[in-house]
Predict the structure.
Amino acid sequence: MDNNHLVIMAGGIGSRFWPISSEQKPKQFLDLIGCGRSLIQLTLDRFKGVVPMENVWVVTSADYVDIVKEQLPEVPAGNILSEPCRRNTAPCICYVSWKIKKRNPKACVVVTPADHLVPDTEAFRKVASGAMEFAAETDGIVTLGIKPTRPETGYGYIKADMSYPSSRKLNIFRVDGFKEKPSLEVAQEYTRSPNYLWNSGIFIWSVSTIVNAFRVYSPGISSLFEKLLPVYDTPAEQQEIDRIYPECESISVDYAIMEKAEEIFVHPASFAWTDLGTWTSLREQVQQDQYHNACIGDNIHMFDSYNSVVHVYGKKRVVIQGLDGYVVAENDGELLVCKLSEEQRIKLFH
Amino acid sequence: MDNNHLVIMAGGIGSRFWPISSEQKPKQFLDLIGCGRSLIQLTLDRFKGVVPMENVWVVTSADYVDIVKEQLPEVPAGNILSEPCRRNTAPCICYVSWKIKKRNPKACVVVTPADHLVPDTEAFRKVASGAMEFAAETDGIVTLGIKPTRPETGYGYIKADMSYPSSRKLNIFRVDGFKEKPSLEVAQEYTRSPNYLWNSGIFIWSVSTIVNAFRVYSPGISSLFEKLLPVYDTPAEQQEIDRIYPECESISVDYAIMEKAEEIFVHPASFAWTDLGTWTSLREQVQQDQYHNACIGDNIHMFDSYNSVVHVYGKKRVVIQGLDGYVVAENDGELLVCKLSEEQRIKLFH
């Protein structure tokens, strides 16, 4: 376990949850489900016992470094990496991979977004530990694939070759290909087949594997960060990162590596999982009243209302009457009332 | 005009406009229509040119004296009377009447609530001045009656004897009787008849007339305040008022005086008038967009929404989608969403 490292990617801005989420404090730093812990705190909690705290890394925007330090005091300050600008996931993963390789060339790394929700922590730990064991023993790149429970059109899919497992001990299979967010018809087809899994965006690999993959498939980005090896963990590091980061291509790790590399595996998992991308998905993750309303807040009173989600922090009084299928969210005086069926337009509204 | 006095009754708590109105700052102190002036400021403005500022009196709860001083700096501090507890309108009017009588026995007084809205100030001033002239010349008690424009069930009505006017110069008639808030059928009947007028709750009388009326029709209340004549305008006044006020019967001036007195007159007026008692009435007083939405706030954005009223102070961003016929009001994080057709239940909700 001492070689296990965790990378939490926490640079997103979460605009679909406005006004609860804002660019000043995006959703990964919010107690979105009202449990007392923010999504990034829940993410860290999920890996306790899998990765030692001194091996936890967070890559985030420079704007959010202080929030991360405040919310994750267990994470060493030197492991919180500050991006001067947004460049998608490939540069972020390349940067932290070179840092980890310098610290421990034998490291095995799990990379995760900061805004997922997995209620069954024990099941998650078992799958994550198994995948890390497999990645440490092989040169494989492993993804976590979630068994679909509905024909979701908001997720990407992984097509697995289920003909024989790639591990004697574990349910790990070769990946046949990655599929973009499908139409409803295609999603329904995927859901009927055992070969298609939701792409969780969680990756597991040994640090030497991913660094080599960057060298081969994304040499431009790789060389920028490899050249900085001498300055990592020195006072000059941030200045150099701030200098080279804007030069990086803005590209996801999926495009830069996953769709090009050969040895890609998937570990199917059947635990409940959501990337909490919409108010509708949030409503499903929160305890509902008998009329299927999900209320996050301490003083919310619903009358003649159904199938709605209401999110208002703290003890402020809220009275909702006569809504069916709406989201109502208030934060610091900013307010949204919107039909859940129209929530994909929220980004355009504000 | 030097004998003209104005009494603004400003002790209400405006619970029907929660959460915009609160017990800490009720509706008369709020810029409810978004014009830059609170209702009590608009009330004072309406009487400029009718009553000199040094003759303006405000009776309010002890809790609101500081707000009155802040919002009406033109009113002499000594004319702001502080009620230690709520006792309806009769004690309040009796108290201020004895105070005015001590200051000027020839005074003519107009008494008004603080939360009415009369957009046509000029028309209002003409009617008020005429009624004060009539009251000063006679022993009459004069009410302002508003010609109904709809069968409103939320107002009381005045039945006038229209057979001949009581003034040679003015449209002033004897009152046949006061009618409680009617059923819809009765309100429709009233609206068809020229004899029925909305009771505005605005009264005009000479100070000697009202003091005599209190002596005759409400001797218990009258004697309490008459006994205090020596202490008015002395340092002992507030202490004595705080002592006797709780002993007063809690009764409206309508029951205590108007329904018993003989010489009651009404001055019909046809200007637009509302007591701004409901969100529906507020919606009608504010500029509406082409979809009949009334928005009070600087940064409110409506999508697919109709016939609604949205009230959010300041520059906070508000997005409303897909509502028809609702009130949405936010103040200091407290929030109400309610069908306008159900707004009479708001008092029960919070």
Remarks:
- The first strand of chain B starts at residue 4 and ends at 9.
- DSSP finds eleven helices and 15 strands in chain B.
- The mean pLDDT of chain B is 94.
- Residues 140 and 262 of chain B are 9 Å apart (CA to CA).
